[in-house]
Design brief:
This protein is an alpha+beta fold. Helix content is about 30%, strand content about 25%. It contains three helices and four strands; from the N terminus they run E-H-E-E-H-H-E. A four-stranded antiparallel sheet has the order 2-3-1-4.
């Protein structure tokens, strides 16, 4: 079963209020079997014109567990603390690949050399 990833971009406009959300959200993530891969930190746009202010990325064992996290009681309470603390908060859920074998690296053959 492939892992699932939540990718979030936000612009925090009320940092003190957002700190309350940041204090509560990790427990909800952990309870749902998830982990933070990125939580703020240095970033830069390498291609395109996407200019996020802050980025987070979380991994869950499955798509279903990520959905259950988002819809669950613990995260619903954490989200209520975040309400109004951001100019915007965008979150997308994506399913990872099941294995590397889904995208094999082409091997050189006599015909291709």
């Amino acid at each position: 079963m492939p892992a699932a990833y939540l990718i979030v971009e936000m612009n925090v406009s009320k940092p003190e209020q957002y700190k309350e959300y940041m204090a509560r959200a990790p427990a909800a993530v952990k309870a749902a079997g998830g982990e933070y891969l990125v939580r703020g930190g240095r970033h830069e746009t390498l291609e395109g014109d996407w200019q996020p202010h802050r980025v987070a990325m979380l991994r869950f064992p499955s798509y279903e567990q990520a959905k259950a996290f988002h819809d669950g009681e613990l995260y619903t309470r954490a989200r209520s603390l975040r309400a109004g603390a951001c100019d915007y908060f965008n979150m997308v859920l994506v399913e990872g690949v099941a294995s590397r074998s889904e995208f094999p690296i082409p091997q050189k053959t006599k015909e291709s050399t």
